[in-house]
Amino acid sequence: MNRTRQPKAISLLLQKSNLKPDTSLITKLNSLLQSYLKQHNIEGCRVAYLQNASLLIEIPTATWLIRLQFMRSELLSVMRQEIPGLLEIKIKVNPNLTTSVTNNTKKRHRPIKRASKMPHDVALSFIAMADNANLSYRLHCAH
């Protein structure tokens, strides 16, 4: 069996059919989202997709959902700087994002080192200072 046509590259087919998402635009929107959310101390959110002038943002918890719903109009204005034709922002909870946020926060925090027992003479010095401060406070209030 002779082939008259050569196989075409998948990337070429995807470009022609508009199925391939514009990853550079999604990356740009995601960095814009992260910088906006960083101002409000919100972590773990991401841009999921952009389709039909609608942007979907995934968030790790329902707590952020409520908070972002209040900020939706301001966020829409920020995102319209990059995409003027953006009509709406949809927000969806994705619990799988929670694990990445908790892993990141665990890495940042160092374990708290507990002090060893205080030497007896240092403890007596602190007690003496406290007694002295208490006495001077009483004398000050008496005048």
Description:
The structure is a single chain. Helices cover 55% and strands 13% of the residues. It contains six helices and three strands; from the N terminus they run ααββααβαα. The radius of gyration is 29 Å and the shape is elongated. The chain starts with 9 loop residues before the first helix and ends with a helix. The chain is α+β, with helices and mostly antiparallel strands and 143 residues long. The model has no long low-confidence stretch (mean pLDDT 77). Strands 1-2-3 form a three-stranded mixed beta sheet.
Keywords:
single chain, 143 residues, alpha+beta, three-stranded mixed sheet, 6 helices, 3 strands, 55% helix, 13% strand, elongated
In short:
The chain is 55% helix and 13% strand.
Write the layout of secondary structure elements.
Elements: H1 10-17, H2 23-39, E1 46-51, E2 54-59, H3 62-70, H4 72-80, E3 88-93, H5 96-108, H6 120-142
Parallel strand pairs: 2-3
Antiparallel strand pairs: 1-2
